[in-house]
Amino acid sequence: MSSQHSQPPEGPEELLRGLPGPPAPPRSRMRGHVLAVVVGLVVTPAALYLALLGIDMLLPLEGSSDVVGAAPLVLGLLLLAVLGMVAARASSLALVVGGLLWGVLPGLVGMPLLRPVLGASTAPLTDPLLRPLTSGLVLAAGAALAAGGAACHLARRAGRRQEREEAALVRGAGAETPAAPRSRMWGHALSVFFSLVLLPPVAVLLGRGMTAALVFGTTLTRQPWQEPSLLAGTVLLAVVVLLAGLSSLGPQLAGWLLVAVGVVAVLFAQGLDGLEPLLSALSALPGGFQLLVSGTWLLLGGILVVCGGAAHFARRSGRRYERADLALTSAEA
């Protein structure tokens, strides 16, 4: 047997060494990081406030539901989508900074954060924030956004790695046409499976935690960070979002399911009494009633959809970035 057939086949790492010329020096992404931080600082509070204002109008604690609340809710979700696109195209810091600074930190403190500014004159501005801050909804939303930024970072790195490996395989085979993209079926399947499997425990833990946080928070005896169920549910929710780094399909599917459940609660508040059996079944879960009437699923579902989409485009952005680097390497050879 010849030595040609006795040698093991080359893998991606060996083929990478055969690319022509030295690797191109990494291009600075400082401007992208700065832009992302600024957008995260400015856009996130406006997006969250508008979304919470819309939820407060659609699902008020007292009085009838106002369909006009759909406008600020949709506008807030659109601003979150802008935040996600900046994270996908420029830097994942947009979601990380916005989620941590405007979601996690105030969410951990809860009601005491608003106590200095509470009063009759500020009630129209602060009322939409009282229930979300006290129950821990702001905390869960901020953690999901921060996890979405981490998922964008992971997806961008995976896209760059995939592009470089495929380019190495083409180079090793001496092909002139791009290789067919490798199947990501298992990544999609795992992402969908674990996203759907984790949703029930997320619902139970968040429901219990938010109900307890709301009861004790209104009396200022406890804060959201003191509720173990709320913290555990928030961590599991972040895990679901992080699955977008593997495949955005799972978190997006889970997000649309949560949005659908939230819309059912809004439609019932608008007078569609035929939905009562479905809402009764959903309310039977521990803390399920609180999750429905607080608009939790509307906001968290929208964030899951946004973060999943951002991770999808971050992966594509990573492939384009690596393709450009490979072109520079070839041109300098």
From TrEMBL:
Signal peptide annotation: none
Membrane-spanning segments: 34-55, 67-86, 93-114, 134-155, 192-216, 228-246, 253-272, 292-314
Keywords assigned: Membrane, Transmembrane, Transmembrane helix
Annotated stretches, region: Disordered: 1-27
Protein name (record): Uncharacterized protein
The species this protein was found in: Georgenia daeguensis
